[in-house]
């Protein structure tokens, strides 16, 4: 899972690069530069980087599942930092979604709006899910190995990883409670074992 943790910040970087291309496209449209700027290419590159972010997150998930066979280092701190750094990204995402839907307020395009909303929400949720899934894998392994008790805070933190906005609070809860509990359990059971705390 040590290599898996690298996927989290790389995914976040790819998400921001994608938004950079989307911003360039909307800026060109709103400032009458659409005829001179490669707007469609901006949208295409943005889509490519979103796809790369999804792929990177999926690779991180696979690596974290493979790493469950060993005693993996904690991804809790990395996940928390990335989720906090991505808060502006989700704000811009809502803005872009409103712009896209606004551009479809045409009687001939109304039927596309529900599909467009479903696609945007689904892709955004998958990206959010992939930034927190390594926490879920790590905590579930700790629960399975009896290094962590299934307290209400732990269960709530896991559930929050699947809910928009609450995922950030869940990451905070897992970092502040689970990391210390796993560290204490590992230290008491194996004093010579390397610490798997998020610090």
Question: Which helices and strands, and how do they pair?
Answer:
Layout: H1 2-30, H2 39-66, H3 76-85, H4 87-103, H5 113-144, H6 152-160, H7 166-189
Helix pairs in contact: 1-2, 1-3, 1-4, 2-5, 3-5, 3-7, 4-5, 5-7, 6-7
What does this structure look like?
The chain is an all-alpha fold and 199 residues long. The chain has one domain (2-189). It is built from 7 helices and no strands. The longest helix has 32 residues, at 113-144. It is elongated.
Please indicate the percent range of residues in DSSP E strands (runs of 2 or more). Answer: under 5%
Q: What's the total helix number? A: 7
| Count of discrete structural domains | 1
Radius of gyration: 20 Å
Instruction: Describe the main β-sheet briefly.
Output: none
Care to count the β-strands?
0
Parts with pLDDT < 50 across at least 5 consecutive residues: 190-199
Q: Helix/strand-derived class? A: mainly alpha
Terminal residue distance:
16 Å
Q: Could you estimate the helical fraction of the residues in percent?
A: over 70%
Shape label: elongated
How much is the average pLDDT?
86
What is the N-to-C succession of helices and strands? HHHHHHH
């Amino acid at each position: 899972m040590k290599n898996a943790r690298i996927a989290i910040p790389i995914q976040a970087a790819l998400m921001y690069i994608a938004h950079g291309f989307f911003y360039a496209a909307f800026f060109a449209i709103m400032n009458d530069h659409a005829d001179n700027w490669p707007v469609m290419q901006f949208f295409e590159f943005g889509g490519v980087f979103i796809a790369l972010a999804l792929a990177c997150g999926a690779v991180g998930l696979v690596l974290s599942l493979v790493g469950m066979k060993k005693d993996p280092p904690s991804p809790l701190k990395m996940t928390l930092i990335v989720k906090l750094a991505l808060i502006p990204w989700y704000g811009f995402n809502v803005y872009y979604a409103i712009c896209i839907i606004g551009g479809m307020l045409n009687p001939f395009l109304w039927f596309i709006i529900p599909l467009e909303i479903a696609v945007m929400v689904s892709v955004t949720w998958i990206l959010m899910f992939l930034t927190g899934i390594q926490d879920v894998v790590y905590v579930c392994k700790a629960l399975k190995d009896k290094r962590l008790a299934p307290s209400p805070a732990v269960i709530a933190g896991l559930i929050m990883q699947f809910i928009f906005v609450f995922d950030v609070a869940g990451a905070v809860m897992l970092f502040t409670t689970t990391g210390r509990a796993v560290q204490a359990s590992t230290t008491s059971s194996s004093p010579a074992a390397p610490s798997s705390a998020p610090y």
